[in-house]
Predict the structure.
Amino acid sequence: MFDDYLTIGDVVLVKLLKSSPNRDAYLVYLVNREIFAELPKNHALKPYKIGDVFLAGIMNMNGARIMLSQKIPQFEKKILTMELSDFLNQHNLEIKRASIKDNLSKVFVAGNNITYEMLQEVITKRKDQGILREYYGGVKIYLLPWKYDYIEKAIEALRPAPVDKILSIGRYGDEIHVVIPQEYAGLFFGKKGVNLITAQKLIGSNIKIRLIVEGGKDGEQGIN
């Protein structure tokens, strides 16, 4: 399943040896490799106990020291590709990018004749099966159609906010500026700004949201 040569982004099978309270991390070894690594607890999708065997992605390599994560895009892409392989192959689709923050995950899927509704139907059916249930049981996953146009890509990245309520959107330098009615602010920002943060990570640019409020007043908000 895994190559002999390890690089950042590789997904590896590990076994937990012990928890290190002073480092707030799990000490693990790579199964069948006799190589040790650390998984910081804030990079684990859930708590683990000694003896647990699970998958993790290589986040950093510094000499013999290997740091793992279950919250890097490469890990999420690998898990989703494994679980959805039949659907992806059947429709000639490819997972392009992923971003995750707290309990919200967004994933761009490239292919012809796919819609947001179609992708959500698939992930809803598969969410509680196999390794998706094991690793992302408490995470809301949204599969989004990949767009080559930058503005269209930003619009898709803001879902599940009601993107049909966007009054205007444009690109200004390295930023995307979006104008929405004030009553939809909570849906576009999400709890603690998570919806906006994952959208920004997904497209790799800041998104500034301008709110149009009753009486013609407006204000600009964003999360860096």
The chain has three domains: 11-69, 72-146, 161-224. The mean pLDDT is 90.
